[in-house]
Amino acid sequence: MIPMVAIRSVTKSYGALKALDDVNLDVAAGEVVAVIGPSGSGKSTLLRCINQLEIPDQGGVFIDGTLQGYRRQGDTLRALQDAEIARQRLASGMVFQRFNLFTHMTVLQNVIEGPVSVLGLGRTEAELEAMTLLSRVGVDDKATAYPIQLSGGQQQRVAIARALAMRPRLMLFDEPTSALDPELVGEVLSAMRDLATSGMTMVVVTHELGFAREVAGRVVFMDRGRIVEDGPPSQILTTPQHPRTREFIAAVLP
How do residues 177-197 score in pLDDT, each as one tens digit? Predict the structure, then answer.
């Protein structure tokens, strides 16, 4: 069976810094994979390569068997045009550390902007879907509010609804709770937990190891641009095999 996401020998450098070093990873449809590791280990770069915000220097990313960013013509790979990359990018929704909501738009307007302008949905259909999604993440009562009127947790839940409104097959989360006050983290993790239960394929870069233990089917530990260890949460978080993983877990978990 073809994996939803297949990362093959991906390397990405920024000058002398090798952010990703020959990374290989498969994510099956419906799987929830938590990616953990110290700052600078390549976690966010990995997500950005999956949705083509960054282009690998070597290797490739495949979604549903389709190489991202390139088209094969005979024995030659040719880079896609921006419009083609944008169409490919619709396969994945991404939620960032910062909420990136349009401050001049209401919550409802934020959620329907993409479906109307990119997917071509009629406004009535887009609004109905948006309200369903806002209800799903528990902020439907904030539809007419502006982002500045919301807490950080509420803004992040709107960001999740906005990403889902584009009907992605895959959701990517880049430390979605790192910018939140501690008391607001739980409401965002709850929305993500519900999303995982629905069967959405998810790759979650996170420092919330409790969430990784409870929700993820697999935990991937990265260090210095490489995947050091990959396995079920019970192994990685309780009995890690690699010394570097053990050192990290010991430092993070009380």
Answer: 988 888 889 999 999 999 999
